[in-house]
Amino acid sequence: MGSTLRRSARRRWASLLGATALAVTAGGALACPAAAGSNVDFATHCIPPAIAGLPPIDGTTTANITVDDTSPEVGDTVAVTYTVVTAAAANPTDLALPADIMTPTGKVTLGGAQSGSITVAGPKKNPPVPGRGTFPSFSMTGTFTVTSPGAITLSPGDYNIHTSYILELDTPCTVIAPPAPVSQTVTATSGVPTNTRAISLSSASGDPGDSVTVSGSDFTPGASVTLAGRSGAAQTADTATVTANAQGSFSGSLVVNDPATTGIVAYEGSAWNADLGAGPAAYVVNDTTPVPDGSQRLTTTVKAGTLAMSQAGDSVALSAVDFGEGGASTGALRTVTVKDFRGGPAGWSLTGKVTDFTGPGGRIDAGKLSWTPACATETGSPSTCAAGSAGTVGASGATLAQAPDGTLTGGEFTVDAGLSLDVPAFTPPGAYSGVLTLTLT
C-alpha cells in the first residue's frame, strides 16, 4: 500500500513539475509590444527537468528584438529587449499554474560589424495559467556597448526559464540551427571626434609688453600652432608660433601689447577654428596709463557663467482619442528656457528622446510621437537659435533646437514644440504614458 501511494504521489509531482517547466517555453496569447524589430521564427529544442519525466520538446519559437537606439555611435550603450512571443509548447496538463513563478534568461547574438552575444534577463513575473492553456509572452532585457561602426545585426538566441514552484528547476531551450534569423539591425557610426586640445597660461594678467607662457596638450604631433590674443570675437595683433612635439604638447611665449586683449587662444591652421584650437584662456592687460591728478581709475570684471535650461513644467496631457478610430493625440511641450552665459566660442544642442507609452492595454511605440519645434532668441543675444526639423522623436531621439559655434556665443532662448502621438485605431482603452527626456549639450 505504501509503495502504491509513493508511486501515485511521484506521478502527480512529475506531472505538475513537467507542466511548470513547459510554461517557460510557452509563448502566447498576449501580443508582443510594438517594436521596430521584426518577428522571426526559429526551430527550438527544449529539455524539461529530468524529474518531470517528459521527453525533449522540438517546436517553433517566435521572437522579437527591440532596441532603444537604432543609430548609435561607437562607445554608446544600447538597451536590448528580447521578447519570446510564441514558444514551442503550451501547458499539456489540466493543472493550473500560479502567477509569478518564471524567471527567464537568454542570449542575443550579434553579427555584421560586431560579433559576440548579449546576456538578457527578465523579471520573475507571469499571470496565472489555466490547465491546457496557452502561456503569455515574456521579455528579457540587457545592454551592449558599440565597439565598431557599421550595420550590427541582432538575432534571438538560446533561452532558459527558471521556475520557483515546489522546486527550483531550469528548462533550457536552444536554437537548433544557430544563428536564428535577424530580428533587428542597428547602424553604428564612428561619431564626431572630440576636440581634447587644451591650454594653460603662466599668468592671468600682465602689463603691456609682458610675455606670458602658453602651454598646450593634445594638439596634432608636429603641427605648427599659432598663439594669439583675442578681444571678444576678434583677434589682436599679438601672435606667435610654436611647434607641437611628438606627444602633441608645446610651451611657448606670447608678448601681449594690445590693452584690448581679454583672452589667449592656440590653434592649428591659418585662422582660428574651434575644432582645431583651444581657449580662450582669460588674460587681463593691466592699464598702466597714469591717472591724472584728482582722478580715480575704476575697474570691473565680467565672469563667465554656465549653460543651463529650465522647464515650465514636467507633465503634458495630450488630447484623448476614441477607441476604434485612434489618430492624433496632440498637445504642446512645456516651454524650455535655455541660458548660455559661458561667453565662449561653443554653441549648444538640445535633443530629446521618448520611451514607449505604456498603459493597461500594452504599449504605443515611441516612434509614434512626432513634434514641430520652434525656438526664439531674446533680443541682444550674441547667438541665434534654430529650431530642429519637424518629424518623429522616437527612442533614438531628434534635435529640438540648437545654436552654432562662433567667435563669441551666448544668450537666452525659449524653445517650444507641438506634440502629436499617432495612436493606433484599436488601442485598448485606458491611460498611456511615456517619458520625454531632453538633453542640453
UniProtKB/TrEMBL annotation:
UniProt-listed PROSITE patterns: PROKAR_LIPOPROTEIN (PS51257), TAT (PS51318)
Alphabetic keyword roster: Signal
Keyword Transcription among UniProt keywords: no
Cleaved signal peptide residues: 1-31
InterPro entries: TAT_signal
Protein name according to UniProt: Beta-xylosidase
